[in-house]
């Protein structure tokens, strides 16, 4: 019997985009499998710009896991469309009969100015990062809700919170992941589903491809490697990790929480005028007394009218 404190025996996990080396997804898949999880290693096998073919892919990671005594299967579907996302979930359920963990890691990262990025790349980036999260979470949700247990680890990026040049579309999609995750954390509470957003940083195939060599070398020298993020991602996927709706930064073994805050409200003023705005805005931007933005409230269940449309699978 293992003496490791945190194990995943009996748990079934999907890690998307886990076929690159060095890659964040691969490091999550290896750690999960080494602690007893059965892992679907998903990867479409595209380059960091979303094009072409790269590396040995998911099957190589599966072989690494198996040769270390773990259980894994490879899956080559895309996360970016509804039916192929469902097929990834089906791979887990048909192979092992359940699904407990999804780490939505798949991604692409073209660096381009807002007026330069092609329409096709805009759709690709939103397709993988935002729609990919939506389709994967939605495909996994009924299985998790039915067993009253699930762990969703959604991958965002600090870039989305920073407002960085060349990253407008990527940031839009990755900030969308945060909105999705925080809502799913609220909705998941009554189904035993925890959802958190992970903001990692590590030298990977993506960074090596998209950044100049000296940046990559600097990151490696600073110990910013995927293996230092893996304990954080897998902890968020563990049964004993009960936080939900959080945004967790992880890089080089350092961990922090990013949270959205707001400044103290100015006095309500029914006679607010346009002319008053310079003064009011100065007060509104005063960060003294800032507080975390409130988590979503259950009041909405009583407030909202029933959703009366066609069945959601139509
Ligand atoms: N590397 C970092 O420092 C960093 C920083 C912030 C966020 N992230 C995020 O972490 C995740 C992993 O990053 P990485 O640097 O390891 O990337 P990576 O490019 O090394 O690996 C991403 C993998 O996703 C796969 N993929 C792309 N589109 C897919 C699709 N539609 N379906 C299935 N698989 C698909 C690719 O084939 C690739 O193997 C990404 O979501 C990225 O945006 C990374």
CATH superfamily of the largest domain: NAD(P)-binding Rossmann-like Domain
Nearest-integer average pLDDT: 94
Return the CATH class of the largest domain: Alpha Beta
Q: Please state the oligomeric state of the protein chains shown.
A: single chain
Q: In DSSP terms, counting alpha (H) and pi (I) runs of 4 or more, how many helices?
A: 11
* Biggest sheet overview: 8 strands, mixed
CATH topology of the largest domain: Rossmann fold
Distinct ligand kinds = nicotinamide-adenine-dinucleotide
Radius of gyration: 21 Å
Order of helices and strands: EHEHEHEHEHHEHHHEEEHEH
Low-confidence stretches are none
- The total tally of domains equals 2
Q: In terms of structural class, how would the helical and strand content be classed?
A: alpha/beta
CATH architecture of the largest domain: 3-Layer(aba) Sandwich
By DSSP, the count of extended strands is 10
Biggest β-sheet: strands ordered side by side in the sheet? 3-2-1-4-5-6-7-8
Quick summary:
The chain is an alpha/beta fold and 314 residues long. The protein contains eleven helices and ten strands.
Explain what the structure shows.
The structure is a single chain. Helices cover 40% and strands 15% of the residues. It folds into two domains: 247 residues, Rossmann fold (3-Layer(aba) Sandwich), CATH 3.40.50; 43 residues, no CATH class. The chain contains eleven helices and ten strands. Helix 1 packs across helix 9 and helix 4 runs parallel beside helix 6. Strands 3-2-1-4-5-6-7-8 form an eight-stranded mixed sheet, sandwiched between helices. Strand 4, helix 4 and strand 5 form a beta-alpha-beta unit. It has 314 residues and is of the alpha/beta class. Bound molecules: nicotinamide-adenine-dinucleotide. The site of nicotinamide-adenine-dinucleotide (NAD) has 32 residues, from helix 1, helix 4, strand 6 and helix 7.
